[in-house]
Design brief:
The structure is a homodimer of 345-residue chains. The first copy, chain A, has 345 residues and is α/β, with parallel strands linked by helices. Helix content of chain A is 41%, strand content 15%. In chain A, the strands form 3 sheets. Chain A has a 6-stranded parallel β-sheet, covered by helices on one side. A 4-stranded parallel β-sheet of chain A has the order 7-6-8-9, with helices on both faces. Chains A and B meet through helix 4, helix 5, strand 2 and helix 11 of A and helix 4, helix 5, strand 2 and helix 11 of B. The structure holds a DNA duplex (30 and 30 nucleotides).
Chain lengths: 345, 345
DNA sequence: CCGACTTGTGCAAACGCTTCCAGTCGGAAC
DNA sequence: GTTCCGACTGGAAGCGTTTGCACAAGTCGG
């Protein structure tokens, strides 16, 4: 009914200025609630803008101000439940802050030069960037810190940059200890490399936690009980087959992700093993499907992580907010049907 | 090592022009491989640009050209496996086309005015938009067609706009017929409304397919066997409890999504029913976890849908490509462990 | 050998804002 | 009654591109 908002050209700031009877400079100031604008004028301008359905052209204002009001998000993959959950959290916060989100995937290395270099999708396009699971490392962080746009790193603990992560070592320890407390002594570990090109610290940290828990109970580690599951369902399936069909199968398995644990469940079904009767199983993440399948796991606040990352970014851009500190997030053991006391057989 | 690419201001087009000994106009043309530029000049400009690590400022070029080189994607939720898979496909295509992706969620109605109106995140920001599962309907499509930016609609079959979807009716028919062929006669349907505010045609279409299959075998529909599962795991769990604890439980259930089927599996476990022994189960989607849990399902090419949607958008923007046509995508029945012949009890 | 094109290039005007600088005006301080 | 100051406002210079138009130098059929 409103008509007008067809393909016709949109109202510009001069139209608003004309209608309000002021200069464009004043319109610009009034609309952004700058000081030194009389209340009456401000009101008049706002009215005019509303009447004209005026919205400042983002590109023009970016060009003029040098600020893009966009924050970039870089992740190795978009498809994982984890990543999309993070993005959802980020998006949630950004919506309120009137910031745009520019998403990009870089399966390869997180080399700062690649990202900000001549062909980098992000260079000159964003005011700040969120790196999700890119595993930049302290060296990469130093490199990134030099770049103009501030960065917030999720999933990793860094000194040089603002970062945000859970305590992976602790999580793994919790999971493993849970199995130990149930009496298990032969405990398999399915982990792996998250993305081929990046050397993530996550698997290392979780392995460390696993080993620490074992050590705490004076259980010897066994090489054959540590297999790479690639962080995929299929990888988990393969790894567990290898383990369970081997000479000395474990009575319990800790997977570094719930998805790998799903693969283990598949293996169990295929081999006719009952979970937790013949095999106790615990994952890591608390994937939405985990509850349905009764998978015990370590719960981490993924969405919250996205929200918090965005929040930190917003604060940095606003001037307040430390530009480098690590923010830990809590985790919790969720015990469900897939873990039980070791059978006495 | 390259130095220079620190916080220092970036090279601009005039720097390149100076270095190459030509005018900025020529640089602009040369860099974008426009005609009417001598090969030698073009080479010289490219060299200069490379030496200076020059990248055209996106905002300036957008402002000047009026083209944003950005396409917007709107979806009711980002978190679902389905949506992220689509996005991954889109992103994949866009990367090559040098287009940016601007993502936004609008849980509410897909009202064109909301999206493109004064407060619409997308207005004036994108060259085109992809609507994923927004269920605009023919009326909304007409509205959208009036707007400047072209739109491609995924997950729905439209006349007025370019659209892309599978044959939902057929898929549901395939699934139901599969159960019928296994001898089942009491077949439950768990479906629902995808998002509260939008009246999607998907559930309706799938319901129609289900009913058609039943009718094909002269099986009477039963109201108590059709329950809303909200398209969530928990919803599927609740719906199936209601059905299975009812007076006359089904011997098989068709869920309109794999995730709801996961919820049914949970119910089965809770009630001590075996799948497929006591209950056959088939879903819809082919969720990545479905294989692991042996869930029979209707497979749809989600990622391909994203790719194709992006492709269509690119074509439209490039000038060739029909601006309104429906593109169907194929589906397939995947029979796994969760469906079996009806037990003779 | 001459207009009519074609090709290659430069000039300069947008594009729609933001923001520095300067100016007006009323009132407080002297 | 000056002078000074602060609150408002306007003028205009960018911001870094793109692109219409003009122009110089060939190219070519007639």
């Amino acid at each position: 009914m409103a008509g007008r908002d067809s393909a016709a050209t949109h109202a510009s700031i001069v139209d608003v200025a004309a209608r309000a009877g002021v200069s464009v400079a004043t319109v610009s100031r009034a609309l952004r609630d700058y000081p030194h604008v009389a209340d009456a004028t401000r009101a008049r301008v706002h009215d005019a803008a509303r009447d004209l359905h005026y919205v400042a052209d983002a590109n023009a204002s970016r060009l003029a101000s040098g600020r893009s009001n966009t924050i970039g998000l870089l992740a190795p993959i978009l498809t994982s439940w984890y990543t999309s959950e993070v993005i959802a959290g980020v998006e949630e916060m950004l919506q309120d802050a009137e910031l745009d989100l520019l998403i990009s995937t870089r399966p390869g290395s997180p080399d700062a030069r690649r990202v900000f270099g001549p062909d980098g999708a992000f260079r000159q396009r964003v005011d700040g960037m969120l790196l999700v699971d890119m595993f930049v490392g302290e060296a990469g962080a130093t490199e990134l810190a030099k770049v103009a746009a501030p960065a917030v790193v999720l999933g990793e603990s860094l000194q040089t940059l603002t970062s945000l992560s859970i305590d992976n070592r602790l999580g793994a320890e919790l999971a493993t200890r849970h199995l130990l407390e149930l009496g298990h002594r032969r405990i398999g570990l399915i982990g792996g490399v998250i993305t081929p090109a990046s050397q993530s610290s996550v698997p290392d940290d979780r392995t460390a936690g696993y080993l620490a828990a074992l050590a705490g109970q004076r259980v010897r580690r066994e090489r054959s009980l540590q297999v790479d599951g690639l962080f995929t369902i299929e990888g988990g399936r393969r790894a567990s087959r290898q383990m369970l069909l081997g000479p000395n199968p474990p009575s319990a398995i800790f997977c570094m992700s719930d998805e790998m644990a799903f693969g283990v469940m598949q293996t169990a079904r295929e081999l006719g093993l009952s979970v937790p009767g013949d095999l106790s199983l615990i994952g890591f993440d608390d994937h939405p499907a985990s509850e349905a399948f009764g998978l015990s796991t370590i719960q981490q606040p993924v969405r919250e992580m996205g929200r918090m990352g965005a929040r930190l970014m917003i604060d940095i851009l606003a001037g307040h907010g430390t530009s480098c500190a690590h923010h830990p997030l809590g985790i919790a053991l969720v015990s469900r049907a897939s873990t039980a006391a070791v059978s006495s057989t």
